[in-house]
Amino acid sequence: KKLPLGLIPLPLIGNLHNILGDQPHQSLAKLAERYSPIISLRLGRITTVVMSSSAVAKDVLQKQDLAFSSRTIPDAIHDLYHNQFTVECP
């Protein structure tokens, strides 16, 4: 599968060192400013695509709707939100 460009990950931890700290959302915003509004990161063993622009997110979700609709939701998310989900747009 073709992923967006991303940072070179370190063994075992991936790109966690790039976003850890008190304000991970600010770290992600800085990465978006420096590289692109859509980047791929490795968080440990998990590859994650980060979309930092509502326009990019809307475009990707509209064009790739079938790919996203078939994805399962991890049990940890169900437990965290007690099976209640919302989508928020700016």
Automatic annotation (TrEMBL):
Superkingdom, taxonomy of origin: Eukaryota
Pfam families: p450
Molecular function GO terms recorded: heme binding; iron ion binding; monooxygenase activity; oxidoreductase activity, acting on paired donors, with incorporation or reduction of molecular oxygen
PANTHER family: CYTOCHROME P450 FAMILY 1, GERANIOL 8-HYDROXYLASE-LIKE
Protein's name according to its UniProt entry: 7-ethoxycoumarin o-deethylase
Gene of this entry: CYP76B1_6
